[in-house]
Amino acid sequence: MQSDQLPAQSKRQPRLKALLEVIAVSFKLGLTSFGGPVAHLAYFHNEYVQRRKWLDERSYADLVALCQFLPGPASSQVGIGIGIVRAGLWGGLLAWLGFTLPSVLALLIFALLLQNGQLADGGWLHGLKLVAVAIVAQAVLSMGQKLAPDRSRATIAILAAAVVLLWQTAFAQILVIVLAGLAGLLLYRHAANAEPISLQISVSRSLAVWCIALFFVLLAVLPLVSQYAGLDWLNLFDSFYRVGSLVFGGGHVVLPLLQQEVVAVGGISEQTFLAGYGATQAVPGPLFTISAYLGYFAQGFSGAVLATLAIFLPSFLLVIGALPFWNALRSSAKVQAALAGINAAVVGILLAALYDPLWKTTIMAPIDFVFAAILFVLLVFWKLPSWVVVLAGAAGGLLFL
């Protein structure tokens, strides 16, 4: 009897350990990931791929490519996906909670304290922006060496960066990824690709189908129900769910859409919204957590919780719906060829983000370049953990900038 209980117990212990590990690592990332969505992907790459080896380079790039296709916050979706791969559905939930909770709490504090729309700025904030420059530069270097190592893929990366920089619309990234996939299909369809490492997805395909169906049902039904029910909380949930479902192009795109939803209808003043915009730029974690700030001003603490859950719910439904089918797609020779081009384009998109908005808005003087270069050396050559470099950036900015 006792021997029969041991296997089940031994299975529970590694699962519990994995869950605790996921929440601890994601919470640390939630505290230290400054710089916006693209910088988050660089932080994830450094922590999950380089340091902890939870995914190999190719699997991480494939997951990023998948999430670029989905509406919603790509960095949060990548984090959810990594949590699911590591520790199942609960792992995905804890990965999201750990990464999101610090910025939600920070923005609630801003909502309580910054009633006049004033955000105290300082050298520490500029130092954190320089950390983001160093982190993204490290990711461009590391991913470029592995995902764009030859002439063709390096060309795809540069062209992708050029298009994204010169044609700055919400659909530019989607178009670039589609075209890069077609280019990869043409260039690498006959290349002998090694079988990709299979991601361990503990989600059934039937659950995946239900999640995709629920995503579309809520998107279609919520506006109708909220219109006739006349309930404030339901209107709030519908607005933020719809924004979370229809945003392509990353976290920055959500801000003007939310402004249209909550300011244009008279729910929140322009001054209050802009204060939240500034606060969101100052805190780590996903930009979608501005929903907590706006929800608080709309309906208090319950509104903050409701708006946050509503804007991230589509990401959960789509990631859970897509992951069970991803291994089969990645094993296809044609899909592998397309992914070779897409992954190179992801490097180009990252390179474009390194220049705009990070470099353009951060490297304003020689001292900025020198400090960013020092942080880059600490990351790449001294191999210091990213959280140490974040603290160094904040302290250096406070003292010298």
From TrEMBL:
Its main location: membrane. Belongs to the chromate ion transporter (CHR) (TC 2.A.51) family. It is found in: Cell membrane. The keyword Transport does not apply. It is a multi-pass membrane protein. The chain crosses the membrane at residues 20-43, 92-114, 126-144, 156-187, 207-228, 301-325, 337-355, 367-400. It comes from Paenibacillus montaniterrae. InterPro entries: Chr_Tranpt_l_chain, Chromate_transpt. This is Chromate transporter. The keyword Membrane applies. GO terms for cellular component: plasma membrane. GO terms for molecular function: chromate transmembrane transporter activity. Keywords: Cell membrane, Membrane, Transmembrane, Transmembrane helix.
